[in-house]
Amino acid sequence: MAVDRRKFLRLTGLAALGVAAKPIGILAQEDIPAEISGKLPQENPLTAKRWAMVVDLEKCRDHENIKDCAAACHRVHNVPEFDNPKDEIKWMWEEDFRHAFHEQEIEHLPEKFEYTKVPLLCNHCDNPPCVRVCPTGSTWKRESDGIVMMDWHRCIGCRYCIAACPYGSRSFNWRDPRPFIKETTPEFPTRMRGVVEKCTFCEERLAQGQIPACVEAAKNDAIAFGDLEDPNSKVRELLRERYSIRRKPGLGTHPEVYYLL
Amino acid sequence: MYDAGKVIVGLVIFLALLTFPTWYNVATGKATYVPELEKAVKGDQCVADTEYMRAEHMDLLNEWRDKVVRDGERIHTAPDGTKYNMSLTMTCLDCHSNKANFCDKCHDYLSVDPYCYDCHIIPEVTK
């Protein structure tokens, strides 16, 4: 063999250069026609500095209205429905006023509140305890608009966040959810067994320029959604005019779902 | 060597049996089998070059995943300026709508089992 060490090294180097240069050649091709496939997301998504929700209990106290909102939410997000309450997955659900606001310790509740149902969901706290405990960083507060996000690709199902959340807003998939989804919405993924899930303030709909599904489904504008940092927004207007309460404010989580009495 | 004849015959039979799968595949033409993928049902341009997509689509999908979920960026701009929605279900499977004849063909051949479809929904095949 006439290839000595020096020649071998030179050849290896040249070959490596050739391999490295190949991808550049691919990128340089620019004879691509402009045929678009797939629906492009809206170029004008809904944005805010701090998303917040205001629920008017005067308009939303009735069970049917809340049920419709929750059903709309669960339909667009492929939330399964289990018979066994221990397996329950919920993004939005209803609770008696007394139970939802037990920390108010109201001894003599006006009668209408005894029968008031309250829609509950993730509060998208300003100081979210679930984010602090997540070991994989699969839940975090979005800096741009304050939404407490989840990356279901990264959730390992340790359920620390479920323990940390004082509002019970997070559910764990104990079983494969797929067979228990009544109508599947193909645009949105399902989850798999061993993953935690919760409301995301419909961030995928906001990106398309749509308001959250529950806000859309609520009758009589019972739920308002808007930018808390914008003094002229609908939510700020309502909070200026009416007396509002939040769930467990004493914990310092700063929930961003307000309830008008 | 004792019983040299028997040992050598035995070795030959053993080697023939050991290499049987290789010979069998060569003889039946299975060794040259390459999966043939179904052409996209619509659109004549992919988000990137075929060569690149063939080798690197998994990296591209991971990049899209991180951009959409983590950074809230949803529009991919190809080098020629064409814009695409960064979505497996809504963009990739919109053209390559038959997963069984596209994704699965290669994945089965290479015996890889990506978990994309544990959560992402496979569109129904329409004819």
What is the compact description of this entry?
The complex is a heterodimer of chains A (261) and B (127). With 261 residues, chain A is α+β, with helices and mostly antiparallel strands.
In words, what does this structure look like?
The complex is a heterodimer of chains A (261) and B (127). Chain A is α+β, with helices and mostly antiparallel strands and 261 residues long. Chain A has a domain at 63-218: Alpha-Beta Plaits, CATH 3.30.70.20. Helix content of chain A is 30%, strand content 14%. In chain A, the strands form four sheets. Chain A has a four-stranded mixed sheet with strand order 8-1-10-9. In chain A, strands 2-3 form a two-stranded antiparallel sheet. Chain A has a two-stranded antiparallel sheet with strand order 4-5. In chain A, a hairpin with a 6-residue loop joins β4 (139-141) and β5. Mean pLDDT of chain A is 88; it is low at 25-38. Chain B is mainly alpha-helical and 127 residues long. Chain B has two domains: 1-33, no CATH class; 50-118, no CATH class. Chain B has five helices and two strands; from the N terminus they run αααββαα. Chain B has helices at residues 4-18, 20-28, 50-71, 88-95, 103-110, and strands at residues 75-77, 83-85. Chain B has a two-stranded antiparallel ribbon. The radius of gyration of chain B is 23 Å and the shape is elongated. The termini of chain B are far apart. In chain B, 13% of the residues are buried. Chain A binds chain B through residues 23, 26-27, 29-30, 32-41, 43, 78, 142, 144, 149, 151-153, 184, 186-192, 203, 207, and chain B through 42-45, 49, 51-52, 65, 69-70, 72, 74-75, 78-85, 87, 89-92, 94-95, 115, 118-121, 123.
